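S.,

Sequence below, as promised.
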Amino acid sequence: MQQKFLLFAPVALLITLLTGCATTPDFDTTGVDRSLTPRSVVAEPEVNRGKTVLWGGTILNTSNLENMTQIEVLAYPLDSSQQPLLEEQPLGRFMVEHEGFLEPATFAQGRLITVLGNIGDTLSGKVGKSSYIYPIVIARQQHLWSLHNPSSRTNFSLGIGVRL
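The prediction came back faster than expected:
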């Protein structure tokens, strides 16, 4: 009986460790211009059209149009796993265009999203009563971050303590 336990214990520990690891999205960042922000793109839209960006932030609104879904996002800097850093200052707003239908209940206000895509045109809109110009990102890939663990950054610590 004890031999079976000794054989099973390392396997159980390995499975527990693997299931506890947070998965991060796999974005192909080849060709991504990391210097661009929504504000800098709006300042020079013609120069930046077609460039590849990897942006993320908080979803503000999701609208389904005839053949696409538009997602309004308040942009934040990204961490090393490409998750938006809400503790940092916002970088402006942008609009995501996704071909086809996305469920607005899933892509709901307040959710965190990261998008890889190309800069398209700009879109005029309103934020409250103020006019606003949004850069459009034509999405090639997006990742919606988990609701259950909004800060799903991987944390690992190991320590030895002495209590007196």
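The beta strands are 52-64, 68-76, 92-99, 112-127, 130-144.

Coffee later?
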